Amino acid sequence: MNVQINSTWKTYLQDEFEKPYFHNLVQFVKEEYSTHACYPKGRRIFAAFDHCTFDNIKVVIIGQDPYHGVNQANGLCFSVYDTIPHPPSLVNIFREIEQDLGIPYPQSGNLERWADQGVLLLNATLTVRAGEAGSHQNKGWETFTDAVIKSVSQHCEKVVFLLWGGYAKKKSILIDSNKHCILTAGHPSPLSANRGFWFGNKHFSKTNDYLLSVGKKPIQW
């Protein structure tokens, strides 16, 4: 199956594209996009892979579902288009960066600037029906994105995995902790952050400290 994804990923994911579950997933997504408003736009479904090539992965951040509001989802987890108001979780991410690194709160919530530096911003489910959170879960996307995580763990060296919240933390079983750095914290959503499970985790400075320690360029958060 010819999936429109950055060529550096095809070597590692082509087998997935040929499996029956992925064929069924493609048919489901095509049907959904032809009969309902869905996000992100079709050409942005694999944007996380287009901006972060396989040979440039330094950090993986795992989200769950794309935003389901109008014009929010741009194919990168936690990220929105330039002019869109920042959702609560993204606000808390930026506030933690502010506290951790002293970087001023940014105007744009578009995280392509991270992805282009080697941060894979991977939602477990890559599409969603407008206004219906979780509507495309358990259709095959999770099988695919689990395979992505396993492939990164197996074929890359010294990657930082940032696992925020219970859902993301469960993905740790897919990652070789002897080869990579795994950092966990509560989810940046207000519910978790306001209970003390997010702020003060210093994941952004810890990530850069680790990258420097293994001879990699730090991320400009």
Summarize the structure.
Helix content is 38%, strand content 11%.
**Which overall shape is indicated by the principal axes computed on the Cα atoms?**
globular
Q: Quickly count the helices.
A: 9
- Sheet with the most strands, sense and barrel status: 4 strands, parallel
Strand order of the largest sheet: 3-2-5-6
Order of helices and strands: HHEHEHHEEHEHEHH
Structural class of the secondary elements? alpha/beta
Instruction: Tell how many strands the DSSP assignment holds.
Output: 6
Helix content class: 25-40%
Question: What is the typical, i.e. mean, pLDDT?
Answer: 96
Termini gap: 36 Å
Stretches with pLDDT under 50, minimum 5 residues? none
Strand fraction equals: 5-15%
Radius of gyration, Cα only, in angstroms? 17 Å
Subcellular location: Cytoplasm
Active site: 65 (proton acceptor)
Pfam family, one: UDG
Family: Belongs to the uracil-DNA glycosylase (UDG) superfamily. UNG family.
